[in-house]
Amino acid sequence: MKSTFNQTIIELVTGDITEEETDAIVNAANSRLAGGAGVDGAIHRAGGPAIMKECRQIGGCPTGEAVMTTGGNLKARYVIHTVGPIYRGGTQNEARLLSSAYQNSLKLACRKGLQSISFPAISCGVYGYPIHEAAHLALKTCIEFARENTGIQLIRHVLFDQRIYAVFAQEFKKII
Question: CB-based burial of residue 61 (10 Å sphere; 0-12 exposed, 13-18 middle, 19+ buried)?
Fold first, then answer.
């Protein structure tokens, strides 16, 4: 499923983000950039030690912010590491922080002259963000960014399984 906003295609696919060939893939990282489970662990395993070496040099990343490293052995040239919020009932600025994670990843990609980026479902795994809410925020933020900026030609949401894809597709239809 895809739609165009301004000059940017926003697309939903199921798949493995470590196989993406976009200029950058986004890692749902922890604030220490220490590697971990889920998407984070998969990206570090597939990308090799060069990614962790650069993460150690950077040192950390606050929730809602984004930093960039090499893509190492990945098909993508770069990994943008962003830290989504841990969901605590929605009372700890989680929505603002999740939106910022997407927004700051997109801004960083633009500043670096990248034209394509792939996102996972940030904060939807071990961080416990309700998938419907997270999908709505992710898509709304990306659409707003695409309407205001022309640098990125493709924003792809790479969703791990059919269940998560279905939720994103449902929310996408509501917004477009």
Answer: buried
Bridge partners, residue 10, by sequence = 3, 155
Contact present, 55 and 34 (Cβ < 8 Å): yes
| pTM reported for the whole predicted model | 0.97
Q: How far apart are CA 167 and CA 160, in angstroms?
A: 12
Q: Which amino acid is at 134?
A: A
Domain range spanning residue 48?
2-175
- Residue 170 is classified by DSSP as H
- Both tokens assigned to 128: 């416990």
Question: Bridge partners of 70?
Answer: 78
Q: The domain spanning residue 89 has which CATH number?
A: 3.40.220.10
pLDDT, position 37: 86
Query: What's the pLDDT tens digit per position in 60-94?
Result: 999 999 999 999 999 999 999 999 999 999 999 99
User: Residue written as tokens 């477009």?
Assistant: 176
Looking at the structure of the chain, the number of domains it has is: 1
Nearest-angstrom CA–CA distance, 66 and 80: 6
Q: Is 57 exposed, middle or buried (0-12, 13-18, 19+ CB in 10 A)?
A: exposed
Hey, which residues are catalytic here?
40
Q: Which segment of 15-24, 36-45, 50-59 scores lowest on mean pLDDT?
A: 36-45
